[in-house]
Amino acid sequence: AQSVTQPDIHITVSEGASLELRCNYSYGATPYLFWYVQSPGQGLQLLLKYFSGDTLVQGIKGFEAEFKRSQSSFNLRKPSVHWSDAAEYFCAVGVFTGNQFYFGTGTSLTVIP
Amino acid sequence: NAGVTQTPKFQVLKTGQSMTLQCAQDMNHEYMSWYRQDPGMGLRLIHYSVGAGITDQGEVPNGYNVSRSTTEDFPLRLLSAAPSQTSVYFCASSYATGPSYEQYFGPGTRLTVT
Fold first, then answer.
1. Which of A40, A43, B70, B105 has the fewest C-beta atoms under 10 angstroms from its C-beta?
2. Are B33 and B51 in contact (CB under 8 A)?
3. What sections of chain A are H helices per DSSP?
4. Chain A to chain B, count of Cβ pairs less than 8 Å apart?
């Protein structure tokens, strides 16, 4: 069965510091992988996605993620965090059949000045 | 384009009442889905549709009904509301395949059942 694990429920970083949010997935085939961000009281916005090809993908707002098949991981990174990055981040696996998405439980990011 | 729209934004129901959450998209997407979001549980799929007239159950379908009579609309019906259905509900839509596979989300409906 498909599943997504985000092991960090909450992360606090200082503004200007680097960030890495972890995501591990379980899926029998090559996955479609996504990172979404949700600001308080808002819907979900796509940060980046991976289907195939280059395993390092660039997204919006300076985020990037790296697909590592051997580790079943798709970690999100940003070299220098801004206060406006404080939000909830969700990793998701897309299953083509039925177009179902499986989301992780999310990582809440706090940015301190 | 308005994208994915949901109404209402907020709703309070009493236990046993019924209601319909509305969802519409103007992107001509084939696929539409309903999720609920609960603290510490991420988003869980309730029902989805791969096209007009075709729906199927997701992970947590009990207590909810859906239908898809048009490409644009995908309403979610709560038959007899229960406190366990207090949640934030998101509707999403997407193309079927290829680079446009991402799901586009509506702004959500916050439902409280007392």
1. A40
2. no
3. none
4. 58
Give backbone dihedrals phi and psi of B16, rounded to 5 degrees, phi first: 95, -15
Distance CA A95, CA B100 (A): 14
For chain B, positions 37-56, list CB contacts with chain A under 8 A: 40-45, 48, 50, 56
SS3 A71: helix
- Considering only the beta carbons, identify the residue of A34, A102, A106 that sits closest to B102: A34
**At residue A36, does pLDDT exceed 90?**
yes
Contact B40 A32 (CB under 8 A): no
CA distance B106 to A20: 27
A61 pLDDT above the threshold of 60? yes
pLDDT at B110: 95
3-state helix, strand, coil in chain B (%, to 5): 5, 50, 45
Q: Please answer yes or no on whether A43 and B58 come within 8 Å at the CB atom.
A: no
